[in-house]
């Protein structure tokens, strides 16, 4: 008899239910499986005879149970792990304001208005009752080991620096391989010590000097929310599994919907990010506007030249790789040119193409500009197109009274994507999709349960999150958004975002008065500037000069063929004193470049 396939034998269920004897006999040898065949009596190992052919090895099962119970931590073990993990977090955050935003260089400490060098060891984290250290087995010196503190920077030809011309691909000088997956476990100290090295091998998005891309941030309550979500671990996509978890998600979705002026009939979901939120919205648009796949090749998607690249990427995932993508130029304020949009559409209709979707952006990644949503809505309505609004970066500035006018018309959009992991400072992996007509979203995603769920109590009136997205078994994301809002209140987030808007204006006005600098007036919290009348290489040299000591991390972008240095003020730890230091760095960098005298500044 083939014992390895015994569970598949048709008489297995009968044998299991009808144990013929409770006699225990001894077995001399261990077997790799709890199931075996035997007709002899051996010694030592207890077994239950389950049929004339099969015995069940209880000792083997006991050993498995003892090992499996390792996963069942005690309160004391959990407290110890959390205490040590928190110690690592505190050590990282203690370093955050001292080290370079990319984690590779530890720069001099600076104060507002003037530079002040750190003395060796001045900001070194020490041990003691009121001081933070990263663990009892803190990594010491060695070829593959990392130390923290401003006086531990290594030098050498392979040292990785930051800057526009330096490549950070490959292995950095501090980079080590993660602790490998092994057959047997190791101590929590070793695991945490290994993990904490990530702080020395990452872009520190929460650093006040990180002013590149769209930096992500995370708050302590958000981290606690993730801990609670992972610990309770509800299946949060179905009312029958956990109604309260579903309600928490729905409360967030409806609150965001109200911020943008959506009706209560809207529906949405928390997603893994803006691209997935956009994909869910585009799927709904496809199903509603292009129901037949044979029309995909003549379907047309309209974007501006500054629309995020993730939007076009979604077409491939949606099976619409053959669809036509039109990139509409922007005007002198970096907004989609609606007149050109209309001409594109008219021409496509004449050529028997099918315009089905136009994407407007409220907060372009490059510039922070806002497309004219009301005018785009009018064109979309005229040609029976779906209007999607990408509000991933700029969306939560709608909380600020000074920026509300920028979101006029968004309430008429068919769908919206917005990122709580940007404007609400949630951890990465937190997007949100909204569809104005929730029924359309549901029609595109309704789950047909398998037979194994046929006994689950369901109510057709329940709007389960699993019916509003393609995701299933998704992480319970609501606590990472909800806990900070509940703890701090909406007003705190409004003030933090308003501060970033004001800081961007402050930076603009200060740079506007600086000789040799052309600066673009910000719409949100992104500021572009450059030295006009010189080569791109000269502007890249300016970037290197500003970032050479590692205090700030900024990048360049090219808009309408012009290269700019780009600054985004978005981290909640970034305040006026940080911006003042940055302004002084720009001034000093311009002076060092010994540019010709000019009689006026250039402002854009």
TrEMBL record:
Pfam family, one: Pyridoxal_deC
InterPro entries named among the record's database cross-references: Aromatic_deC (IPR010977), PyrdxlP-dep_de-COase (IPR002129), PyrdxlP-dep_Trfase (IPR015424), PyrdxlP-dep_Trfase_major (IPR015421), PyrdxlP-dep_Trfase_small (IPR015422)
Gene Ontology BP term (one): catecholamine biosynthetic process
Cofactor requirement: pyridoxal 5'-phosphate
GO CC annotations on file: cytoplasm
Compositional bias annotation for Polar residues: 124-134, 142-169
Region (Disordered): 124-184
UniProt GO MF annotations: carboxy-lyase activity; pyridoxal phosphate binding
Residues the record lists as N6-(pyridoxal phosphate)lysine modifications: 422
Keywords for the protein's UniProt record, in alphabetical order: Decarboxylase, Lyase, Pyridoxal phosphate
Coiled-coil parts of chain: none
UniProt family annotation: Belongs to the group II decarboxylase family.
Protein name as it appears in the record: HDC protein
